[in-house]
Amino acid sequence: MAFKDVAGNVRIKRTLKLALERTRVPNSLLFCGPEGVGKKAMALTLAKALNCLNLTTDSCDACRSCEAIDKGVHPDVMVIAAEKQEIKIEQTRFLKQMAYLRPMTGKKRVFIVVDAAEMSDAAANSLLKVLEEPPLHSHLILVTASPFLLFPTILSRCQTLAFSAIGREEIEEILLERNFGTEQARILALLVDGNLERALDLEWEDVQSLKEESWALFEALASGDRSALFLERFGTLAKAVQEEFGRTLEVFSSFVRDILLLRLGGDPQFLLNPDFEPRLREASAAWTVRRVLGVLEELDFVLTELPKNLNKGLLATTFFSNFGELRHV
Question: What is the pLDDT of residues 84-94, one digit of tens each?
């Protein structure tokens, strides 16, 4: 995968290619931004470009160095990931030892730490010196969707490149190339909120099932008499359903935004859930604009807090309670 094959984030690709052209790629980098926008793919492409035998500002994807990195067998390029939900100090100590050794077969050593926010405190502290004074032949790339969970001392030692969500039109084009129907591609692109990886992982039948289940819970919450169904599902949030909780809230958010659009007399072509238009129109008749805005605010708060190390069951219970209070606004 060359830079041109990584979707979106044109500005970051230009920045990295210019740095490669000038041989001034920072040795300590932080790639941060939403999930599923190609941060790891960009880091691997940069690793290939730094070691490519044919090109100097991109990867050729054909030389033995690029092929070895693609296969995960290049001795000078390492990807460090969490073991049992945590990056341990033993992993970062090994990284640090390897960083000070000269490259074995390539031009540069590259270490990519994915989900860097999952480093233990000890692991993060062990990287401070190598991040501040990295060897000229080594590059460390931290990848995370949650930079706010990293120590300030880590952030201050890295050059940060902030990734943006992938544009809906680009996701839609990619899905059309993958043989999705026009309407399916449009709905999926709207649903995933810029997360290309999620769009590529989703099956249309799974999307329909998620939306139907979410609508049933949404209606139950809105009705009052059946609202306990939501609390039964998410009140004691086991790890197995934490991801489902986030997806359900994202669909809730899309429903409420559509209700707001309809309440304000907006053009239906901008609905996030055009396949639910009749149901959304019926529901919107019972919602005041003030209620819609209040629920949106609650949803935005929970979705912002969800990735952090908070009590997710408490978040679900708080949302349930606040939603109930807004029922009469």
Answer: 889 999 999 99
CATH 1.20.272 intervals, the chain: 203-326
82 — phi, psi (to 5°)? -65, 140
Fold of 3-162: Rossmann fold (3.40.50)
Opening angle at CA 113, ends 112 and 117, nearest 5: 155
Structural element, H or E, at residue 29: strand 28-32
3-state SS class at 282: helix
Q: For the segment 152-174, what is each residue's pLDDT rounded down to a tens digit?
A: 999 999 999 999 999 989 999 99
pLDDT for position 243: 67
Question: What stretch(es) of the chain map to CATH 3.40.50.300?
Answer: 3-162
CATH architecture observed for domain 203-326:
Up-down Bundle (1.20)
Distance CA 32, CA 161 (A): 6
pTM for the model stands at: 0.78
